[in-house]
TrEMBL record:
GO terms for molecular function: glycogen phosphorylase activity; pyridoxal phosphate binding. GO terms for biological process: carbohydrate metabolic process. This is glycogen phosphorylase. It comes from the Bacteria. Its EC number is 2.4.1.1. The modification N6-(pyridoxal phosphate)lysine is found at residue 614. It catalyses: [(1->4)-alpha-D-glucosyl](n) + phosphate = [(1->4)-alpha-D-glucosyl](n-1) + alpha-D-glucose 1-phosphate. PANTHER family: GLYCOGEN PHOSPHORYLASE. SUPFAM superfamilies: UDP-Glycosyltransferase/glycogen phosphorylase. The keyword Transferase applies.
Amino acid sequence: MKAIRRFTVRTVLPEPLRPLGELASNLRWSWHEETRELFRSLDPAGWRAAEGDPARLLAAVSEQRLAALAGDRRFLRRLTAAAEDLADYTTAPRWYQEQTDLPAAVAYFSPEFGITWALPQYSGGLGILAGDHLKAASDLGVPLIGVGLLYRHGYFRQSLDRDGWQQEHYPVLDRDSLPVRPLREADGSAARITLALPGGRTLAARIWTVQVGRVPLLLLDSDVEPNQPAERDVTDRLYGGGSEHRLLQEMLLGIGGVRAVRAYCRITGHPEPEVFHTNEGHAGFLGLERIRELSREGLDFDAALESVRAGTVFTTHTPVPAGIDRFTRDLVTRHLGDDGELPGVDVGRILELGRETYPGGDPDLFNMAVMGLRLAQRANGVSTLHGAVSREMFAGLWPGFDPEDVPITSVTNGVHAPTWVAPEVLRLGSRQVGASRAEDALMAGGTERWEAVSGVPDAAVWELRRNLREQLVEDVRQRLRASWRQRGADDAELGWTDHVLDPDVLTVGFARRVPSYKRLTLMLRDKERLAALLLHPERPIQIVVAGKAHPADEGGKRLVQELVRFTDDPRVRHRIVFLPDYDMRMARTLYPGCDVWLNNPLRPLEACGTSGMKAALNGCLNLSVRDGWWDEWYDGENGWAIPTADGVADEDRRDALEAAGLYDLLERQVAPRFYDQGRGGLPQRWIEMVRHTLTTLGPKVLAGRMVRDYVGQLYAPAARSHRAVRGEAAVELARWKRRVRQEWPRVAVDQVETVSVEGSVGDAAELGATLTLRVQVELGGLDPSDVDVQLLSGPVDTADRLTAPVAQSLKPVARADVEGRHTFEGPLTLDRTGAFGYTARVLPAHPLLADPAELGLVAAPPEAEGMTAGVLR
Ligand SMILES: *Cc1c(COP(=O)(O)O)cnc(C)c1O
């Protein structure tokens, strides 16, 4: 068996240098500049060759150099300090340890994790968000365990052919040189989990651990003995292969992932998770495995489901149907049926969980997002707008409820500032407020700390911006040369690349994956107009573009080619470039180096978007469609909003209108403001916008803020529910729900009437008048304590529909009458002028529900009789 290389390295590290091994294998180095500096100083040339990856550096550094360093007292002092700092970071109490009543641990499942380019296990925003979530959890001391897959090829590397057509490469990742360690049993053997597959086959996987600061990340890898070749390929690459391949990956992630968490906690003594967080539907099978665990302990399916739901949080990330996994029911039945992976769990019940029960749903498909929502008592979207869009999108699962009442909340994404803020920006901040407060501001937020930016002098801001732009220009030239060599150009033809871009020209960046809704080529809509902007004699702009199309997306590749061909034109090629192989490494130079970050998705399909947040943290201004996070936090002065033509159904016309809006903004507002360089050559109004961006957006866009929101709004309540809905309580809750569902067809609102009036009421009632309302309801076999009878009141529109109803609970006042009707009463004060109305509804009520809409049951009076409306003057 081959020893893992870091192991080998450790054995050859001289004793005094031992701590380097720990510093290299804890990925905190990826967001800790001082640790990186330490490695760089070890061997600057080797550091460059290792592309800034400490594990690779240590594998390559010469023995003489190590021997010299082992006797270098200054280096050893720095090493000791760095090792102590890491030990302190990973053990000292942090924010989480100051709180009470929080989960003992949270397991966070995601199909991809973008932590550093040295561990390429991500394709784009979803993975990088997951990486930032782990890092921020680490900073805050949140006891998170990450769970994912280790893909042998990661995601593809992109290059271009001569014609600008995307080429994909899948380098094999040598696990021996990745910053991963095998999880081992006490006897030293590698820890494994297995899954049963149809036909008596098994799928085994080993478990690797990655240390992300304080947070362990478990990655499952099926490329092991004794798997057959097909099973070894289950973790071959991210988002590749057909439907069955995807299903196997997701079974391994969800079902295998829970088993890996159990193994990890058993071996290391880590507390068991009380909350399971599913980052997007791909990991949803984790809920089924937990149902199986509880079934084995003797709970029936319904009780196990209640118990699992109580401790599960589901985050949906996309309103784009293509982003949601759907499998045929046959395929799911084959894998999860009688002789399948989940013995004792009825496959019929599993299929029901993924059934698209809304109008237009496909009865033959199993929908992972739908299952995710049914397996989680708490669910959220990733920006305020996306929350609303998701409530609308999934409203069919809660029939009878208005979209506003659908129980899907939102937590707006954030980005991990220590990863994404350029060291130059941090240093400027440190000069202003001191190093530890600047670091604090990045991790914890706090508006006051960010306010300090307003004290940074104009000249310093501008010098910083130019410095960052210049670094980007240098990076672009190198990448462009490398790309052209790859495309078959000869060095002699490439002299022009030395003069590509100009460090004093307004620089616009656009980089993202290339699904059609992101509209990579919107800027090409009017090529002459774009060329005129690029070549403007006094106020030119330059544009850096990057992005990968999914390998199976021919349309996306055509868009890349169209863009590349435009950038190849000798007339404009010094002002617009396409850089192949967008990844985290490129991103770290690109975001800070741009003056303007462009985003022009088809609203509202961008759930959040995070690249613009990273740009903002570096003083880059956003120019974006009001979608995702920008809809929420654009304030008129922190950037620009590209006007959207949402109402225009013809997509082509809509593109034309929005592109024209984009050109207008660039030409009339963005460029003039950038070049309005008055006193001392400084564009004061621009600099003011940079400062305003930092002070207002800085504290909001942080992953630290996001993780604290998750803890407070979702993890803590889920942990409380998890503790309450166990064993007999779960059985009781399931039994209660069954009874309510059974009886519900007999629940009805019979009558809503006014029984007394204080003040004057009539067709034109008086402000301040109070009515006492009485509602009579039929409850079938239910008890008044099983329901909440609500009065809904508020302004009405011209069709007498409530527009923003306020709900208030009414009290039961009398036992059932001879016909079995129950009476509820309560006061209604008329405190608003204008057209108003009121009506009533009945909802199931139980202390263990997280939301009154949870069961998807509601009873309201018949449409025609329900509403009482009047005008209040
Ligand atoms: C942040 C990031 C993304 C996601 O950006 P969006 O704005 O959400 O598209 C994608 N790729 C890389 C490399 C990133 O750093």
